[in-house]
Please model this.
Amino acid sequence: MYMNILLILVILLTILTSFRLMKVFDLAAKLRGKEPYEISESENNMNALLVLLSLVGLSGMFFFLNHKYYHPATMLPNASKHGIEVDKLLHLNFVVISIAFLICQVFLMWFAYKYRYNKKRRAAHFAHNTKLEIVWTVLPAIVLVFLIGKGLIVWNLQMWPENDPNKLTIEIYSRQFDWTARFSGEDKTLGDANFTMISDDNILGVITPETIDRQLAKCRKDLAELDSLLKFSFPNKKKYGELKTARRRKNFQIQRVIEFKNQVKDKKFTTGYDDVVLQQEIHLPVNRTIELQIRSQDVLHSVYFPHFRVQMYSVPGVQTRFTFMPIVTTAEMRDKLGKPTFDYLLLCNNVCGAAHFNMQMKIVVDTQEDWDKWMKGQKTFRAGLMPEVTVPDSATVKADSVPVVTMNNPH
Ligand SMILES: [Cu+2]
Model:
């Protein structure tokens, strides 16, 4: 507090002193019989020289920083197939930008030096030069079209990849402040999901006959609680309004869940059974196409795998996608970097709230063999739903033969 007051005082005094000093300079100039704004030739030459010196200093800084921070050895190593193209594009952009930047700076500073004020020189005046305007419009346009065209080619290859029948589909689900991943399991299809089905033990809102019954029971219990609050808690006007809104929403949710229950007759909602839902850590097989289907529960997040050169917004209400292929396993990357503790990470790259910085998930890239082993050890969504029912092997359970088990509300 006192520190702040002191700081403000120092700033105010500095401003005041500079004003007084300027006044002193003005008076001194008047005494010497000059106008205060008159600048002598030696002052002019000095300023011009300083501009030239700053060109040397700034260019030196530019090359130094480039060497220190933009060097293939210090860049985050790439670990995905399309990342090679992305990195090439980045390098190309940097080369073009650097050349343009250096040319402009050299001319700017050199001209400021060369054409410094000189009493004997008269400035040439021309209002228009068509040739010059054509050159400085067409040249950058050609360079930009080339860069954007290159970028579009890489983008299109990335966003509309050839359909790979062997691809692995993974849902990445974001919420404040964690990631949830869902693997599509044996049937290679992710089960349907809806936000009205979200509950503590079903954070993705996966729809299966069991989760429908559970959700319905839970919603009806919540509704009964709201009703009793409305009747017996004598709420004030504001609270009453809030309870009414909550009741309306709960009713809407029940309607949606009932719709799903009715759909069960012709649509089994069993594709979700073999899905594997994971938090904290997931494994990916190397050299296989991975298709990410991205959803968000609350606000904008951004799926960011820096080593795979993957970044895509996670938008509430919209599904986004990204397809990529990891080409370096975690073990290989640890060897390459000489860091035995290295791990790939999934990060959030869109400031989404207080704990945004800590929103991450560990990614392990395995050989196909190791990955198969790891996947076998994971609990399916169905096994998580019904811990008391022993599921023989998710591979042998036919989707159609799964009995519809009605679960009671666990609460
Ligand atoms: Cu986030």
In short: Strands lie at 168-175, 178-183, 276-278, 281-285, 290-296, 301-305, 310-314, 320-324, 344-348, 360-366. Residues 174, 301, 348, 350, 352, 356, 359 surround copper (II) ion (CB under 6 Å). The chain is about 50% helix and 15% strand. Residues 389-411 have pLDDT under 50 and may be disordered.
